[in-house]
């Protein structure tokens, strides 16, 4: 492929533009290799003019940046401790502020009265006086050119994500040089789209985001760059979607009197209408010559697994195999058991569902590998061990991924490569995904939703136990637990930590509840005498975890004290109570998932969310949100709002995080939707981007970055 010469400007190595020392420091600190990498290191914020003048009104506990002159300097030794204290007073003509440095008396050589500089730090109050302790600063040195000094006085000052070795000012200076050296930059966003939305050219946007003359300039620049980011991301996803659909695969059709028909005939319930709808979508997809790529979202217990098994049976009818990928060994084990239970003894014997995980003993592992490669086993269930080189299939027709958020695009891709022809892919998730997130993270998938739960669920009641206000209610929690057990039911107690930990300095509130400490407490609790109480957590060997889960499912254990290993998929109908300790330490969707472990059978579920968080805190708001509704979609939206920022995309969801710089999924839904529509137009008319070389280059850069990111993690 020949690249437009213009788009190469961003691919120039940093080392050929900056001095080697700075280039290497940037690579070490942020992984920047090219000019394009560096230029997309955008300022985190800009110091505003207003902050610079009103020294007297500086808010405490806030990070401020101030341009001011050094007024006076004094040094004294401290009274109680060894060492010296350097006190510097700065002024901007309207007010003054004290800076303090401990044991850094050398600074008096540079902080001499009359020097002007920019000072940044957190304002603290000491003896009723505002001060900055150990601020970052940069002095305008005498030889700095007049233009720069003038800029400092009027232009917004960019502040960059920085490290101790590479300060924001170093970065700013390097940025100035990089921009001076920058050749022509072609626009990844086609002209007509830019015109429609009133966007700047890419080059202009890069200049203004780093060196704005006023606030409106950086705001416009960021708007352009944010859209560009969304546009390139959507173009990449839609191109991938197009690519996945461009290879033919084997259609998978059930046969009369085959496995699927026998399964349906024996199913003890009828599918809900949502299930029927989604089952129809899946059946159509896999009966086609283009590979399916479908995400099915539905609450825990909404009946996704049944649909996945039906798809596996249609594949088996056509002579193929299916692989089910689970996030943990516990879940893989549980999936295998529930598949065997659903299939019943005859179909199980014929289809030979097999488990393949990292911890299988060698002999069993050999047997499982053989069954997989020979095609004898039509259903292979496993963890990421299935991705390993040793595993191969006879005819892999379908990949089912359970709980997508632990498996990224890269893992799906690795498994896809194990099939001769591209397999159909079905992704299941119990985490409801807001539309904008689905578009961003799963833009290459079609989405089906199961909204209704099968009838006959008794429901779940949720309560917050607010220990900050009602410390004594903790006794009531264990009392209630003992009452529930007295009815012959079982319970989970979930803790954020495994081991107790000493409270460390700077910790807020008491240390997190731990499995070890709570297990000990409950075993000794008078209300729970004679109950079987066991601990389950990720550090146990997997056969031990498996044994415990099985014993719990069989009713031999009354209470499981656990970490979130029990989060997903665990299915014990007799478990009716879920107690989450320090619930504020969990995310909204995690709490919702945990709650979904109970109330699954005919028994009403009870979920107690125990927290020490104060009533206005963010943690408490999350807990309150979960207690207030059972609707997972509502919660997903609330969650997105509570997070404000873009950590919606876990890095292993798609590798997308590294490439999302200005785009915030929580906030930029409209931008994403526009970008998807407009990028769709380009992909439809020019799927290889042959007539859009700059877009092709931007997509390639994005993939490179993702790849680097992925390699760094493995
Ligand atoms: P999910 O995978 O979405 O959590 P499952 O497929 O495991 O849900 O279903 C949860 C439970 O409900 C299983 O015991 C399953 O057999 C049962 N189930 C599924 N669909 C129905 C239905 N339409 N009517 C009654 N029970 C159902
Ligand atoms: Mg399931």
TrEMBL record:
Chain ranges of the Helicase C-terminal domain: 459-641
This protein's UniProt keywords: ATP-binding, DNA damage, DNA repair, DNA-binding, Helicase, Hydrolase, Nucleotide-binding
Coiled-coil region(s): none
The keyword ATP-binding belongs to this UniProt entry's keyword annotation: yes
Molecular function GO terms recorded: ATP binding; DNA binding; DNA helicase activity; hydrolase activity
Record-level GO BP terms: DNA repair
Record bears the keyword Hydrolase: yes
Domain Helicase ATP-binding: 285-450
Protein name: Probable DNA 3'-5' helicase RecG
Organism expressing this protein natively: Agromyces atrinae
């Amino acid at each position: 492929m020949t690249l437009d010469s213009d788009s190469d400007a961003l691919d120039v190595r940093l080392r050929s533009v900056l001095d080697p020392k700075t280039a290497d420091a940037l690579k070490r600190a942020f992984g920047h290799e090219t000019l394009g990498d560096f230029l997309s290191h955008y300022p985190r914020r800009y110091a505003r003019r207003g902050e610079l003048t009103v020294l007297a009104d500086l808010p405490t506990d806030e990070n401020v940046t101030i341009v001011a002159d050094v007024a006076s300097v004094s040094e004294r030794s401290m009274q109680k401790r060894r060492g010296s204290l350097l006190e510097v007073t700065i002024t901007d003509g309207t007010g003054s502020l004290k800076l303090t440095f401990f044991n850094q008396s050398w600074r008096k050589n540079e902080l001499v009265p009359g020097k002007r500089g920019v000072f940044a730090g957190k304002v603290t109050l000491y003896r009723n006086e505002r001060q900055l302790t150990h601020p970052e600063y940069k002095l305008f040195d005498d030889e700095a050119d007049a233009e720069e000094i003038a800029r400092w006085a009027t232009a917004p000052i960019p502040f960059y994500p920085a490290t101790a070795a590479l300060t924001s000012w170093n970065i700013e200076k390097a940025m100035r040089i990089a921009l001076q050296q920058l050749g022509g930059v072609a626009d990844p966003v086609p002209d007509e789209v830019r015109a429609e939305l009133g966007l700047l050219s890419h080059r202009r946007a890069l200049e203004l985001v780093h060196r704005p003359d006023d606030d409106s300039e950086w705001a416009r620049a960021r708007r352009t760059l944010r859209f560009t980011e969304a546009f390139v991301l959507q173009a990449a996803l839609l191109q991938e979607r197009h690519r996945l659909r461009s290879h033919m695969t084997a259609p998978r059709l059930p046969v009369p009197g085959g496995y699927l028909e026998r399964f349906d005939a024996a199913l003890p319930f009828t599918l809900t209408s949502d299930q029927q709808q989604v089952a129809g979508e899946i059946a159509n997809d896999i009966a086609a010559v283009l590979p399916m790529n479908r995400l099915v979202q539905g609450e825990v217990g909404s009946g996704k697994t049944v649909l996945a098994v039906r798809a596996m049976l249609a594949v088996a009818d056509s002579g193929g195999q299916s692989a089910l990928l689970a996030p943990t060994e516990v879940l893989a084990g549980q999936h295998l058991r529930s598949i065997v239970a659903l299939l019943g003894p005859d179909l199980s014997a014929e289809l030979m569902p097999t488990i393949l995980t990292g911890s299988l003993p060698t002999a069993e592992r050999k047997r499982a590998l053989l069954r997989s490669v020979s095609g004898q086993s039509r259903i292979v269930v496993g963890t990421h061990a299935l991705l390993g080189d040793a595993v191969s299939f006879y005819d892999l027709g379908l990949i089912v991924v359970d709980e997508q958020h632990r498996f990224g695009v890269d893992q799906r891709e690795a498994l896809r490569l194990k099939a001769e022809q591209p397999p159909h892919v079905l992704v299941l998730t119990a985490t409801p995904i807001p539309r904008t997130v689905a578009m961003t993270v799963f833009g290459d998938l079609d989405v089906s939703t199961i909204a209704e739960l099968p009838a006959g669920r008794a429901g779940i009641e949720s309560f917050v136990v607010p220990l900050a206000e009602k410390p004594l209610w903790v006794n009531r929690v264990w009392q209630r637990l003992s009452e529930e057990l007295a009815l012959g039911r079982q319970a989970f107690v979930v803790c954020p930590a495994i081991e107790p930990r000493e409270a460390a300095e700077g910790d807020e509130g008491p240390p997190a509840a731990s499995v070890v400490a709570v297990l000990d407490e409950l075993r000794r609790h008078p209300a729970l005498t004679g109950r079987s109480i066991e601990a389950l957590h990720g550090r146990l060997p997997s056969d031990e975890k498996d044994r415990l889960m099985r014993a719990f499912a069989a009713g031999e254990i009354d209470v499981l004290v656990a970490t979130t290993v029990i989060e997903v998929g665990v299915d014990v109908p007799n478990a009716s109570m879920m107690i989450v300790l320090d619930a504020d330490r969990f995310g909204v969707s995690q709490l919702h998932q945990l709650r979904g472990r109970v109330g699954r059978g005919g028994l009403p579920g009870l979920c107690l969310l125990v927290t020490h968080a104060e009533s206005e805190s963010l943690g408490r708001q999350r807990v309150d949100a979960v207690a207030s509704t059972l609707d997972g979609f509502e919660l997903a939206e609330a969650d997105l709002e509570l997070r404000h920022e873009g950590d919606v995309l876990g890095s292993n969801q798609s590798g997308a995080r590294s490439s999302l710089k200005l785009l915030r999924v929580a906030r930029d839904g409209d931008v994403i939707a526009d970008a998807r529509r407009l990028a769709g137009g380009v992909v439809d008319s020019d799927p290889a981007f042959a007539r859009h070389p700059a877009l092709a280059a931007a997509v390639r850069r994005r993939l490179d970055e993702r790849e680097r990111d992925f390699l760094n993690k493995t």
